[in-house]
Design brief:
Elements: H1 2-14, H2 25-39, H3 53-67, H4 71-100, H5 103-115, H6 117-125, H7 130-149, H8 152-168, H9 175-188, H10 195-225, H11 234-243, H12 245-248, H13 253-261, H14 265-282, H15 291-298, H16 302-309, H17 322-343, H18 352-369, H19 378-393, H20 404-423, H21 426-448, H22 452-465, H23 470-482, H24 486-493, H25 499-511, H26 515-528, H27 533-540, E1 548-550, E2 560-563, E3 567-569, E4 572-586, E5 596-602, E6 607-613, E7 616-622, E8 628-633, E9 643-649, H28 655-658, E10 671-677
Antiparallel strand pairs: 1-10, 2-4, 3-4, 4-9, 4-10, 5-8, 5-10, 6-7, 6-9
Helix pairs in contact: 1-6, 2-3, 3-4, 4-5, 4-6, 4-7, 5-19, 7-8, 8-10, 9-10, 9-18, 11-14, 15-18, 16-17, 16-21, 17-19, 17-20, 18-19, 21-22, 23-24, 23-25, 24-25, 25-26
């Protein structure tokens, strides 16, 4: 437990992904949950009915954060709860394994849950997945407890937790038949009572709580959309997009999504259902065209793929956690190879194998029909890890027997090894990847000792080893931008789109005077970059010197941090200061120490503002009533320097709590339009 906690806290410390700035599922859930917490109104996603579980959970945590004055506290609470659930799975996994097999299996399985990379990063990296996964494991644990103790309370809990899993991600619905078979077979073979009198009450104890938990949401959907939408429309829509004429004929998913957006939300499920029936009747082979490539894609070394094959890390801290990631792939390979020996052996765990095989089979089918994402594969890895742990636990515990069960396990294990090895030339991938990383590290060392020729040589070696690595190109382009080599920067950065790459593109356009392109790129990156782009820009960029900085015009990234997104009222642009902000202002000529700082500020209410320049602190009372310029002397200690770093601090308020009919839940203080050194 302590090891698992330490690894999760370590990952949180190096992780920079922030759902407030995400264009992915997390960003959608965060925005809608915050709206729900503020207004009490639940709104579906603009083009899909998504599961509500994460919205309700996020909204509860964000509400607490709002009571404490900052929704960011709510995000920390979400992660704290999810880390707690992740840690709880360790003893629960031990209990499942030792009840189904033995204590040695329990220790091995619990260790996997504690240290395996996907388990460590899950509660920190993807906010919109851990609730489903945690509820699934708790559901399975309760079923096993019921099997051993025959108390109906465990079945009630199993029904509720599976329903919560389904409300977090609708594939939880497909766990019902697996659980029903497990309960029926377990009850059928129990002693003392007639079989039907054992089976029917047990099934009702599970199914009724499940249905009661799901039903309010299903009824809400029917009343709103006049269609039977049990949880969401994600499954039918994703399947139709994968099978659509647009994708089939090579025009891409964008066209299919555009078609859906033209159809009212209430009619989309009926439309995609009719389209799927048409395709099934006329071209049923479409459903199987991706079976084999997607099936191959399941059995890949995930961290090696993420670190050495993909064009970008996509903001994940892979360099910081690479030892854990590589160990994780070795753990994954071990339990994948070992699991068939238990899954195809004589039953030791009773009917639970139905649940494991059911989830493995369903998940494989789902991703083979639609598309493969690592998070979708977690139910496969969960149960293969359990059965792999059982196989490893038997090593040295009993004589080796080569019966028909062992031969079947060996055949499947060898087939999986062939799939993994045959998917990609991993030895060559690793060699190229190591060469790339060594060259990248050499470049960082050369930058630290200010050796430009060595920097360029190292970066060129990096691109030779991996010419498609967009993050490496972004680093090289960032260095070239700082050198003022703009044409070479455009050539190096290439066309592959990442948010960090677009930050460099925007800064490059700004440096070349293309303000319109710069605004578009920098605004988009700040809104959807998946991290605090103001902080990143302050670390990465060296913008042009200026004596006057206007905030909020989307050209101020690299100068500011700790502010809300830019806004415009008439011709005036500004940013709201949040609790504490930094303005870094490089100036064209060295300071004399006699200059004046001019701050153009406004506030909706009297607000005390602390302005720090070096060790010198100034107090300003920003008064309401419009824009005012506040003048402060520049400290004499700045004499001879060519940069001023100004820190602003002010107490915040949350508009929706202070002003009627205001739904703005941001923590704000004062508005900053301009800062100048005179």
């Amino acid at each position: 437990m302590l090891l698992g906690l330490g690894l999760r806290l370590w990952f949180l410390a190096v992780n920079r992904i922030d759902p407030r700035f995400s264009a992915a599922d997390d960003g959608d859930y965060y925005v809608r949950a915050l709206q729900f917490a503020v207004t009490g109104e639940y709104h579906d996603n603009s083009w899909l009915v998504r599961p509500p579980g994460h919205i309700f959970f996020f909204a509860a945590m964000l509400k607490i954060g709002l009571w404490l004055g900052d929704p960011a506290i709510g995000i920390s609470l979400i992660r704290a709860v999810q880390v707690g659930l992740s840690l709880a799975l360790i003893p629960l996994g031990y209990d499942i394994a030792q009840r189904l097999f033995d204590r040695r299996t329990g220790v091995i399985f619990a260790t996997i849950l504690a240290v395996w990379m996907p388990m460590v990063e899950l509660p920190a990296l993807i906010l919109s997945e851990p609730l489903f996964f945690s509820m699934l494991v708790i559901h399975a644990w309760m079923l096993v407890r019921w099997r051993d103790e025959r108390r109906s309370g465990w079945l009630i809990g199993a029904g509720i937790t599976l329903a919560l899993a389904a409300l977090a991600r609708s594939p939880g619905l497909y766990g019902v038949p697996f659980a029903v078979l497990f309960i029926a077979l377990s009850a059928w073979h129990a002693a003392h009572q007639p079989r039907l009198r054992r089976v029917i009450p047990a099934l009702l104890s599970f199914l009724l709580p499940f249905a009661i938990t799901i039903a309010p949401w299903t009824i809400r959907n029917y009343l709103l959309y006049h269609d039977l939408i049990v949880v969401d429309t994600l499954g039918p829509v994703n399947l139709w997009i994968a099978m659509s004429d647009a994708v089939h004929e090579g025009r891409g998913e964008g066209e299919a999504k555009a078609i859906l957006l033209q159809i009212p939300q209430s009619e989309r499920q009926r439309f995609v259902s009719a389209e799927l029936r048409r395709i099934l009747q006329t071209e049923p082979w479409r459903f199987t065209r991706n079976f084999w490539p997607h099936f191959q894609h399941i059995w890949k070394a995930q961290f090696i793929e993420d670190f050495f094959v993909k064009a970008s890390f996509f903001t994940r801290p892979l360099r910081s956690v690479w030892p854990l990631g590589l160990i994780g792939d070795l753990i994954w390979f071990a339990f994948i190879v070992a699991a068939p020996f238990t899954l195809l052996s004589r039953l030791r765990e009773g009917a639970f194998r139905i649940i494991a095989l059911g989830w493995i089979g369903y998940t494989c089918l789902m991703v083979m029909l639609t598309h493969v994402e690592p998070r979708y594969l977690l139910p496969i890895w969960l149960w293969l890890a359990l059965y792999g742990a059982a196989a490893v636990a038997r090593i040295g515990q009993q004589p080796l027997r080569f019966d028909r069960y062992s031969r079947a396990g060996l055949a499947v294990s060898l087939a999986l090894i062939a799939l993994i090895i045959g998917y990609r030339d991993y030895p060559q991938v690793i060699r190229n990847g190591i060469a790339r990383e060594q060259a990248w590290m050499t470049a960082q060392q050369a930058i630290a000792r200010n050796d430009p020729s060595a920097v360029e040589q190292a970066y060129q070696a990096m691109l030779t080893a991996d010419p498609d690595f967009a993050d490496g190109r972004t680093d090289f382009a960032r260095w070239l931008l700082a050198q003022g080599r703009y044409d070479e920067t455009w050539q190096v950065i290439g066309d592959y789109q990442t948010h960090r790459g677009n930050l460099i593109r925007g800064a490059l356009a700004r440096a070349q005077g293309d303000a319109e392109t710069a605004r578009l790129l920098l605004r988009n990156t700040e809104e959807l970059g998946g991290e605090d782009v103001q902080r990143l820009a302050l670390e990465w960029l060296s913008p042009s010197p200026t004596s006057v900085l206007t905030l909020g015009n989307d050209l101020d990234l690299g100068y500011v941090m700790g502010f809300a997104l830019g806004e415009r009222v008439g011709d005036t642009t500004f940013r709201w200061l949040q609790r504490e902000g930094v303005i870094r202002l490089p100036v064209p000529t060295a300071l004399t120490g006699t200059e004046i700082i001019a701050l153009r500020l406004a506030a909706p209410q009297p607000t005390p503002l602390t302005v720090m320049v070096g060790s010198q602190a100034y107090q300003i009372n920003v008064v309401p009533g419009g824009w005012r310029v506040y003048l402060l002397p520049l400290p004499a200690t700045t004499r001879g320097t060519d940069e001023v770093v100004i820190t602003l601090q002010a107490p915040t308020f949350v508009p929706y709590r202070q002003f009627a009919d205001n739904a703005d839940a941001r923590p704000l203080s004062v508005m900053v339009n301009q800062i100048a050194i005179r």
